Amino acid sequence: MTAPFSEETAAVIRRDLLNWYHQYGRDLPWRHTRDPYAIWVSEIMLQQTTVAVVKTRWQSFLERFPTLESLAHAPLEDVMAEWSGLGYYSRARHLKKAAEIITETGEKPATREEWRKLPGIGPYTSAAISSIAHGEPVAAVDGNTLRAVSRLLAEKEALKRGTGTARVLSAAETLLERTAPGDHNQAMMDLGALLCTPRNPACNRCPLKPHCLGSASGQPEDFPQLPPKTKSRTVHLAAAICLHEGAIFLVDDTEFVSKHWSVPVVRLESHARPDLALAAFWQTNHGKEATVLGATGSLSHAVLDRRYQIQLLLLDAKPEDTINGSWFPLARVSQLERGGFLNKVLRHISEPGSRPPAFPEAAEPGTHPSEAGPCRQRPRRRRTGG
Ligand code: SF4
Predict the structure, then answer these.
(1) pLDDT (tens digit, 9 = 90+) per residue, 219-246?
(2) Are 224 and 156 in contact (CB under 8 A)?
(3) Is 337 annotated as catalytic?
(4) CA 202 – ligand 1 centroid, Å
(5) Looking at ligand 1, which residue's alpha carbon is closest to its atom 5?
(6) Same-domain pairing of 248 and 335
(7) Pocket test for ligand 1, best of 21, 175, 191, 206 (most atoms within 8 A of CB)
(8) Ligand 1: distance of its center to the CA of 123 in Å?
(9) Is residue 228 situated within a structural domain?
């Protein structure tokens, strides 16, 4: 592969980028430490969470678990509680698992390859930690850097995992300022976040403009070319809200985010009545008898290309009558691994008037429960042996 820049050009780019970073780079709390553990925590939080949110949570996580050892020895439940609200809870689980591995083996990672072997750490994160915390001269290419380098090269194919990607990754390594890899990597990230944005990049304020083929083309937004948008589809669900003495019934999430908790949901065929579909689903999956008390509202939710329309139905179920799930006190749900859907459900049921005031008799035959208000639907047969 031919070098994308002459050594002279690369040297000018490195110099101008670092000068810009020292003047305009973001002042983020985790940039004031070289502690690998603290930097690692910041990089894991930043994987799926915005910088603005991480700024409010990183410090408190470190106050709760100030060292790698304290994280390794903490109960998982405490770690999950501290992670609460950040979402993508597998990150917290992996973080703790990796801390346990390091503590048990006594081998503290110090290179990209060593970090890469730990759970939850991929190519970008391992390079970011090793360059920032240990000064290892490796390029950390996140989405921001990938976009900026694609535009520098006017490379359209960077998102197709072929030669275009290889060309951009190679250019990122070529441009790396090997005497200050941590600062360089963070400078590239800031350039992509602050100037080389997906829409309307601020080329006129960019220190790399004199060398940027994308900007010279007049259409920098064309690089890299985005994959065609997949058409979204609508999925209709009925969700079971079971509350009993301040506790809620939750199951493994099979619809939105795996390994998370959710209220039970069932997909609805077109024109299916949510109460009937849910009652049948309940008999098959969660056992014994439950009474559909009525509709309590509806929610919209989106995951990737799926747009969910969800009818929420209150069920009268008791702990001794349920299988394939667990009851949790509502006050404890914030400590569980849960996605945005369950958060919406919890907000909904905490609103005044979200629960039917009484348990009325059956709704008018054929009436949709979301229109009819509270109704009663009994499964036709009792499940045994559950
Ligand atoms: S000149 Fe424009 S397109 Fe090129 S790197 Fe800078 S902001 Fe991005």
Answers:
(1) 999 999 988 888 899 999 999 999 999 9
(2) yes
(3) no
(4) 7
(5) 148
(6) yes
(7) 206
(8) 25
(9) no
Cβ of 13 less than 6 Å from ligand 1: no
- Closest among 146, 126, 128, 122 to 31, alpha carbons compared: 128
Has residue 95 been placed in a domain? Answer: yes
Q: How far is CA 32 from the centre of its chain?
A: 26
Residue 356: other Cβ atoms inside 10 A: 15
Q: From the alpha carbon of 192, which atom of ligand 1 is closest?
A: 8
The helix (run of H) or strand (run of E) holding residue 236 is strand 233-244
164 lines ligand 1 (CB under 6 A): no
Is 109's C-beta closer than 6 angstroms to any atom of ligand 1? no
Its domain, for residue 52, covers 7-222
CB 172 within 8 A of CB 192: no
Atom of ligand 1 nearest to the CA of 147: 8
Whether the model clears a pTM of 0.85, i.e. scores above it, the answer is: no
Which residues on adjacent β-strands are paired with residue 247? 244, 329
Is 361 strand, coil or helix? Answer: coil
Are the C-beta atoms of 305 and 284 separated by less than 8 Å?
no
Nearest Cα residue to atom 1 of ligand 1:
209
CATH number of residue 188's parent domain = 1.10.340.30
Write down the catalytic residue from 7, 8, 43, 77: 43
The letter for the amino acid at 172 is A
For 329-365, the pLDDT digits (tens) are 998 888 888 888 999 999 999 887 665 543 333 333 3
Cβ neighbours of residue 342 closer than 8 Å, sequence gap 6 or more = 250, 253, 260, 261, 262, 263, 333
